[in-house]
UniProtKB/TrEMBL annotation:
Annotated CDD domains: TerD_like
Native species: Lachnotalea glycerini
UniProt-listed Pfam families: TerD
InterPro entries: TerD
Protein name from the UniProt record: Tellurite resistance protein TerA
Length: 200
């Protein structure tokens, strides 16, 4: 079984008293294949969608930053920021998709995490991408954050906000809201990072 969140809905992760939260896995899967539209599509070709998974983080000590493939900011699971991106799936064909890992045992050092995805390559066709985020952690039901809002030409989407609750657990809120880019997402959630162009 899995819990499918509605937009704006919050749920708290269930903490095991003996083990804590453990490792929290945030998985993104999507359909990379372009939809063929008409006979000319075969003549001119059509590229698939390359989605990137990432997050903004804010630690209790005030440090802020991002974990994402763009800029090679893959993070670290056992040291600050206690968040790590496994790798960069450029095709969407990987069965495992893209994964962010959060060290739930370092909960007391993390204030909040905003998970997002953005279209690195391809047309902003979110319905075609059919992306789903699944949050997994030990001994509990999966939490699904489905991208069920599609009407946007913006290439950035805020997916889910995880917030520290009294150093006991994280609350998870479904966002699924679209933005022009990293800076617009930052402004909406008052993160305050200084942005510059990055590359893979």
């Amino acid at each position: 079984m899995a819990i499918s969140l509605q937009k704006g809905q919050k749920i708290s992760l269930q903490k095991n008293p003996s083990r804590g939260l453990g490792e929290i896995l945030v998985n993104l899967n999507w359909n990379s294949k372009p939809v063929k539209q008409g006979i000319l599509s075969g003549l001119f070709g059509s590229k698939g969608i390359d989605l990137d998974l990432g997050c903004l983080f804010e630690l209790k000590d005030g440090r802020k930053g991002t974990v994402q493939a763009l800029g090679n900011a893959f993070g670290n699971l056992n040291n600050e920021p206690y968040i790590m991106l496994d790798g960069d799936d450029r095709t969407g064909n990987s069965i495992a998709g893209e994964n962010l890992r959060i060290n739930g045992d370092q909960l007391c050092k993390i204030k909040r995490i905003l998970v997002y995805t953005f279209i690195y390559e391809g047309v902003a066709n979110w319905q075609q991408a059919d992306a789903t985020v699944t949050i997994k952690y030990p001994g509990a039901e999966d939490i699904l954050v489905k991208m069920d809002s599609y009407n946007s030409t913006n290439k950035m989407c805020g997916l889910a906000l995880l917030e520290n609750i009294n150093d006991e657990t994280f609350s998870v809120e479904k966002i699924v809201q679209f933005y022009q880019g990293h800076e617009a997402l930052d402004r909406e959630f008052h993160w305050g990072i200084q942005w510059r162009a990055g590359h893979k």
